[in-house]
Amino acid sequence: MPEGCGRWLCVKKRLEELFLATLDVGSVPLQDDFDGSRRNVDRAIVDKVTVGLDYPCYPQLPGSSTNPMNMALQYLKPLSKINPSIQITGQEARLLSDNINEPPDVIGVEPQEYFLTFIRNHALDHVKGLKACVTGPFTLAAYLGLSNLMTCGASKPHIVRTLARILSRSCKRLSDLGFDFVCIDEPFLSVMLGRRGEVLFKYDEKFVLDILNTLVTQSSCLSAIHVCGRITPLVKAILLKSAADVLDHEFTQVRENSNAYSKEELERAEKFLAFGCVSSINPAVESADEILASLQRAFRLFGNRFLVKPDCGFGGMIGTPDAYGITQRKLSNMVTAAKMARRCLVDG
């Protein structure tokens, strides 16, 4: 078979696998089980699979006020054990010096390893694949002294580079373990790559791209970069040039994001969008018909180059009455809408 034909078949297979596939961003509004029982973690895993997600992500569970946990502390806590320069008080992390020692072992992957083992031991592997996420180096660095944006860890290129090397090992481990999807969570990029066309801290675009690709290229599986908030021109330009397969954004709370990419741009760059079609902060539950209308609009804009997901993680809804029940109903309606869309746009 000619080389061009083989490549076309590969692209066609990828389109068939990813178009209208459903996934979630990760976090859910249940507190972490620090007592070791893992009841909430287990419940969240079972519910994500049962609701019908094609690529469920391991549950990121926020901690409590007395024992906090978030997307940064998952990595900063183990780093602080070998780095006296990282001081953690509650949810606040400080960088006392400009040096970070790299740990001898991979960090931050224990929750994902547990997720994978639980899925296999409980015969819950009737899904297209499993998704893991890793906090990106710019976002992780920003948590170090976040109270002062211009002097936080993200403003120090050597800190960002060191964290990128550390996190790239986490990405490789997750890929080697058998995850089918690894997503780099970089919400800080929507701040750093601002609307005025300038990168904070005077970084050039090549530096940002090299740092992101340090992580992405370590995954032999599907890769994604998640950036919430508004898609600025710089965010778009850098992500289209990145090595990631999927660009993951909010499209419900930030509706103007629908104008950020064109179908032609995605095709040229060989990218897919992870299309946020339900709000992760508004407790109103979108109906399946409302979500279907959103997916039909996405099809008109992007053709068959998108997956289906919530805007962001649901961890921020913790404290809202019936937050977990609301999350489950949103995910259930999203899965139903994706099946309806497939009948309308593919089978019909």
Describe what you observe in this structure.
The protein has a single domain, classed as TIM Barrel. Helices cover 42% and strands 11% of the residues. The chain is built from twelve helices and eight strands. Helix 11 links the parallel strand 7 and strand 8. The protein is globular, with a radius of gyration of 19 Å.
In short:
By secondary structure, this protein is α/β, with parallel strands linked by helices. The chain contains twelve helices and eight strands.
* SS field, number of helical segments: 12
Overall pLDDT score: 92
Can you tell me the residue ranges where pLDDT is under 50 for at least 5 consecutive residues? none
- The percentage of residues in β strands lies in 5-15%
Describe the biggest sheet?
A: 6 strands, parallel
CATH class: Alpha Beta
How would you classify the helix and strand content by structural class?
Answer: alpha/beta
Helix content: 40-55%
